[in-house]
Amino acid sequence: NNLDPPGAQACPQGRKIPTSGSHLVGVTRMLDTIARLVNADDKLVRRGRFVDTTFLIAIDNADTLIRVQEGRITNVTPGPFITPNYSFALRAPRDVWQKFWQPLPPIGFTDVFALVKHKLMRVEGDLHVFMANLLYFKDVLAAPRKEGAERQANR
Predict the structure, then answer these.
(1) φ, ψ for residue 2 (rounded to 5)?
(2) pTM reported for the whole predicted model
(3) Across-strand partners of 92?
(4) The CA-based dihedral angle spanning residues 131, 135, 136, 142, taken in that order and rounded to the nearest 10 degrees
(5) How many CB atoms lie within 10 A of CB 28?
(6) CA distance 134 to 15
(7) What is the pLDDT of residue 147?
(8) SS (H, E, C) the chain
(9) Which pLDDT value is given to residue 150?
(10) For every one of its 155 residues, what pLDDT tens digit does the chain have, with 9 covering 90 and above?
(11) Is 118 within 8 Å of 108 (Cβ atoms)?
């Protein structure tokens, strides 16, 4: 496909993942990890059982749409997009997301609202779904920390 980035390969979900020459490789892996970890957490899926929305995570200039249905992440769609359809967006630089996703994040990087307060993250759009399901979304966004903690424990 001539629209795929150079060196892209199909992943099991049929999406194309850049494999060289792009900082998007790590971004896509982090967001794929969120889907796997959220969907494997029965308590988290149960908490979000009434959530049916699409939201956007922006890491630097790389946008990714996350589709949630009945608490499960059903689709992770990397951009670019012409006119993305989402209820809310979370935008932050890559280094902020990396610190946020550490198993033990530094002070000030432990919570979405701490990042917003320090102007490291922007939350945009219709915030009703986000605020009405705040604990669910906070745990969804923190899910990659679990994998990092498991990797450190296995060393």
Answers:
(1) -75, -5
(2) 0.77
(3) 59
(4) 110
(5) 21
(6) 29
(7) 67
(8) CCCCCCCCEECCCCCEECCCCCCHHHHHHHHHHHHHHHHHCHHHHHHCCCCEEEEEEEECCEEEEEEEECCEEEEEEECCCCCCCCCEEEEECHHHHHHHCCCCCCCCCCCHHHHHHCCCCEEEECCHHHHHCHHHHHHHHHCHHHHHHHHHHCC
(9) 55
(10) 333 344 443 444 444 433 333 444 554 467 778 899 999 999 999 999 999 999 999 999 899 999 999 999 999 999 889 999 999 999 999 999 999 999 899 999 999 999 999 999 999 999 999 999 999 999 999 998 876 555 555 55
(11) yes
Report angle CA 136, 18, 75 to the nearest 5 degrees.
30
Reading the block at residue 68, the tokens are 């949630």
d(CA 44, CA 60): 27
Pair 120, 90: CB distance under 8 Å: no
For residues 62 and 67, what is the distance between their CA atoms, to the nearest angstrom?
A: 16
Burial of 43 (0-12, 13-18, 19+ CB in 10 A): exposed
Half-sphere exposure (Cβ direction) of 46: Cα atoms closer than 13 Å: 3
Q: Which two tokens stand for residue 105?
A: 């994040």
